[in-house]
């Protein structure tokens, strides 16, 4: 059985615990004032779609897509449970985010993340998937800590 990625409403304690782990990790690996991760209520906003990844009935990760405008989405809240690292969870979630972004007609995906050893696996995942360095966007400040990446999306060919 593979990884099952599904849209989630963030109502289970298990999912809420994963978001708490994500927020804790962001705060412990980022300078004060540089954490832009979304809390549960923000992940429930109408502009955000949230997914969880499951394997054999176990929660193994999550990720979200926030609509910035009708042509642009932002990747948010990507996190893999520690027991599932390096097993394709992040790739499965990212694949679903990209698929849905294309389906919605987005022309690009953006993301903001941090720098340092804790963020290197995320940088590698995004680079492998065609994300390239970009400038700051939205209300994010450009600092020495922030990394901004973007990916242009080709629209699916319909027959």
Structure, explained:
It is a single chain. The protein has 159 residues and is an alpha+beta fold. Helices cover 28% and strands 30% of the residues. It has helices at residues 13-28, 40-43, 89-103, 120-128, and strands at 4-7, 48-55, 58-69, 72-80, 108-113, 132-133, 147-152. The protein has a 7-stranded mixed β-sheet with strand order 1-2-3-4-5-7-6, sandwiched between helices. The mean pLDDT is 94.
DSSP helix fraction? 25-40%
Radius of gyration: 15 Å
In order across it, which strands form the biggest sheet? Answer: 1-2-3-4-5-7-6
Write the H/E string, N to C. EHHEEEHEHEE
Number of helices: 4
Structure class: alpha+beta
| CATH T-level topology | Aminopeptidase
| Uncertain runs | none
Distance between the termini: 31 Å
Overall domain count: 1
Short description:
The protein is α+β, with helices and mostly antiparallel strands.
Keywords:
159 residues; alpha+beta; Aminopeptidase; 4 helices; 28% helix
Question: How would you summarize the topology of this molecule?
Answer:
Elements: E1 4-7, H1 13-28, H2 40-43, E2 48-55, E3 58-69, E4 72-80, H3 89-103, E5 108-113, H4 120-128, E6 132-133, E7 147-152
Parallel strand pairs: 4-5
Antiparallel strand pairs: 1-2, 2-3, 3-4, 5-7, 6-7
């Amino acid at each position: 059985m593979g990884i099952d990625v599904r849209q989630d409403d963030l109502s289970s304690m298990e999912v809420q615990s994963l978001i708490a782990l994500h927020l804790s990790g962001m705060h412990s690996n980022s300078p004060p004032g540089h954490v832009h991760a979304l809390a549960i209520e923000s992940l429930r906003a109408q502009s955000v779609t949230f997914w969880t990844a499951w394997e054999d009935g176990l929660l193994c990760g999550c990720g979200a897509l926030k609509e910035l405008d009708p042509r642009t989405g932002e990747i948010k809240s990507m996190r893999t449970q520690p027991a599932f690292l390096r097993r394709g969870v992040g790739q499965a979630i990212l694949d679903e985010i990209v698929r849905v972004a294309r389906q919605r007609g987005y022309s690009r995906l953006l993301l903001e993340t941090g720098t340092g050893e804790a963020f290197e696996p995320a940088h590698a995942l995004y680079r492998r998937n065609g994300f390239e360095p970009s400038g700051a966007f939205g209300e994010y400040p450009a600092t020495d800590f922030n990394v901004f990446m973007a990916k242009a999306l080709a629209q699916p060919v319909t027959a």
